[in-house]
Amino acid sequence: MGKIKVLNIGDLDNNQSKVVNVEDKEIAVFNVDGEFFAIDDKCSHADESLSEGEVYDCKVECPAHGAEFDLKTGEALTPPASKGVTCYQTTTDENSIYIEVEKDA
Questions:
Q1: Cα–Cα distance, 13 to 26 (Å, whole number)
Q2: Cβ pair 74, 40 in contact under 8 A
Q3: How many domains, the chain?
Q4: What tens digit of pLDDT does each residue of 80-96 get?
Q5: Strand partners, 71
Q6: What pTM was computed for the model?
């Protein structure tokens, strides 16, 4: 599938997140001090929306049970989550945020 525009940079304030739908996948896009990250929106433990969680130190905390995920890698950092979430590469130009989505085999 390749690189897909998901948002305008102005649509996402600092320390804010938004959910975008790409090929029937809900992906949470985060702005952390002007750096953009994208991961699957659903917690691997409880299927809760990670975009609703608290963001700090390049991590997001699931609002349901407090599991933390690394925004750079998608890795599950704390219980009760033991499995990470998919992480997507982000790029920007002057106005837009893009994510890389691999084509399903």
A1: 19
A2: yes
A3: 1
A4: 999 999 999 999 999 99
A5: none
A6: 0.92
